[in-house]
Automatic annotation (TrEMBL), chain A:
Belongs to the CcmF/CycK/Ccl1/NrfE/CcsA family. Pfam families: CcmF_C, Cytochrom_C_asm. This is Cytochrome c-type biogenesis protein CcmF. It is a multi-pass membrane protein. It comes from Chelativorans sp. (strain BNC1).
UniProtKB/TrEMBL annotation, chain B:
The lineage of its organism: Bacteria, Pseudomonadati, Pseudomonadota, Alphaproteobacteria, Hyphomicrobiales. This is Cytochrome c-type biogenesis protein. It is a single-pass membrane protein. Residues 1-21 form the signal peptide. The chain crosses the membrane at residues 105-126. One of its GO terms (biological process) is cytochrome complex assembly. GO terms for cellular component: plasma membrane. Belongs to the CcmH/CycL/Ccl2/NrfF family. Required for the biogenesis of c-type cytochromes. Possible subunit of a heme lyase.
Amino acid sequence: MSVELGHFALVLALALALVQALVPLLGARLGSAPLMRMGEPVAITGFALIAFAFAALVLAYVQSDFSVLNVWENSHSAKPLLFKITGTWGNHEGSMLLWVLILAFFGALVAAFGQNLPPTLRANVLAIQGLIASAFLLFILFTSNPFIRLERAPIEGRDLNPILQDIGLAIHPPLLYLGYVGFSISFSFAVAALIDGRLDAAWARWVRPWTLVAWAFLTGGIAMGSYWAYYELGWGGFWFWDPVENASLMPWLAGTALLHSAIVMEKRSALKIWTVLLAILTFSLSLLGTFLVRSGVLTSVHSFATDPTRGVFILAILVFFIGGALALFAVRGASLAPGGLFHPISREGALVFNNLMLTTAAATVLIGTLYPLLIEAISEDKISVGAPFFNLTFVPLFLPLLLAVPFGPLLAWKRGDLPGALQRLQFAFWAAGAAAIASYFLIDRANAAAALGIGLGLWLVFGALTDLAFKSGIGKVGPALALRRLSGLPLSMFGTCFAHAGLGLTVLGIVSVTALQAEKILTMQPGQSTEISGYTLRFVDLRPFTGPNYTEDRAEFALGTTRGASLGELVSSKRLYTARGMPTTEAGIRTMGLSQLYVSIGDRTPAGLVVRIWWKPFVTLIWAGALVMMGGGFISLMDRRLRVGAPARRKAALAADGGGTR
Amino acid sequence: MIFRAFLLVLCLLGFSGIAVAVQPDEILVDPALEARARQLSAELRCMVCQNQSIDDSDAELARDLRVLVRERLKAGDTNEEVLNYIVSRYGEFVLLKPRFNARNAILWAAPVLILVGGSALAFSVLRRRGNTVPAPLSTEEEAALRDILKDES
């Protein structure tokens, strides 16, 4: 029964989304306040309905209701409860429902907290959100309905893909979608501004927090996906330049650029046209990512959703929204007045450079991802574009950007003082340089490139700290005053520092694991020992083990240092999920400080068990850095100047205390 | 990531006999030769997988290719000769780094063209705007400015 109610709620939500798409837009045209206001209750009710539908599907999964086709295909009664719940979005239909749930959530947030937006802007934004929701609800109801019943309910389900039976599924897709879909708000604001023909610094102030939220979640989502792939797939890679990974990286790159250009627009009223275009492009890349992943266009056979009707449907959505927004931009964009002037060496100039490099990087990833499809479409040839291509093109594009990052916050608006910035960054430069030289001579296997990479990572970290130190006057004034000044700095400055330093940590992790990791591939008999990077690993035994819905062979290793100290046991296993008969590897990972020892096992051969061992120095910095970046985003969001609704409250506060001192 | 995981599973399913990518018995005795083999393997696609190199793949076909690469290296081929040999048998699809040729010109040129074009555009816009002298204030504006400044002091 609840499944039918959920289904019904979803249909109602579609009807409401259509109302939300049309009525406020009409109201804004006619200048009718009641019609414009209708968007808000409709958006909130629509969200409640979709949340109800989603809850109904989760309930069906929890109860293992195999009369529902989607549950039968993707669940199993013996599955642990957590994986029953997360299994709801571990498939095409359920994940699309999560997608629109998050879309409706953001729409409801604008409706609930957008009270001090200009009424026509709010009405238009909600209308565009309603239009996007309508398109995707139609897509779900017509091609990917999760509520379809089976005529005769099977006794047992077919189980969830075993690789997805992991805590990663609980974290990664929701975070990723909060990021992907969060950019829809920036998109709606951009389109609404184009419809309105009005665009000012207040617009940028409104867009920035939404972009920041989406960006922070997307950063976390990508990082969690990367860590999940790292420990689950069993060969210790953290980024594969896979098309589906690229699909999430492109909006991240464009979103990062948008975040920075919105600052210029807010503070200096410059780059208006560009910021609007970037807001449109960022969400377009999110939509493109959804299309690439959902339609199965990337590979003809080995794909996730092989049904071509879905692909054509999403392609139509893609063409409608991207084409429509860009057409509107072409017609209206030129009428937006250009903003403030600035010298190339200035904060604005640095941010333009940031945008140039990030956009080029995003375009490179886009072309690399789509080029094989293009070649296949115009000729019969098939080519591959993989990791070696992206490493060769992406890395050179990113290097100058990374080198320039510490300068940005230290340059003044309008006209900056480059020698002055260089002088302030002296400490960061020499410290990073000294660390690079030291690592070249002190670390085995470190070549010049590795040493320079380590220097680059530290340059970013020290550079970010330099900015805070300079602004609080550390080293120039007494420590007490400096501390007081530091705590008085706006939170957004701490946000910038965290985000840039986090980037540095990620760079450090990538460089050190790429250049310095050790690998050993061998066959081992019980009792046999091997050494890697100062640790010994003794293969104890291989034992069978039975889990709730799998059986596995567990290889037990005794871990110790080469000096003889014991570090306990390490278990690495090969699992077989019985319902699907699918094998997976469960890597044995031991974290030591920031580094990890990674053990995965293969076949049993006459010579012994095949074992692969990696020593991955500082590997955890890759994801820790991303989390620091994400934290920077949220810290910046807490800055009262940025808080949603803050401008009006601040004005009221200023009026109350007669001008105030802030 | 999850979708990649799906594809990996498909790959495993189609070609069962799960094995860890590079097998101990494949490794060449000469470390220099083995290093070259690993480097080449990372540039060759596992034909039956989704965007996986043969160095990472567990599929049987990937193993065959890894062994083939090592055989050619032992026979004294240069890296380029090994790649040419494999392309002649499996087609250009096997290369994860597409060749520099006319057909792939757009692919390889795109990053440079976009960067150069973007820089040129940014500079021209900035210079054009830098040259325009802002219009002088009208008398009303100057009066308004005086009023504001009076209030401030």
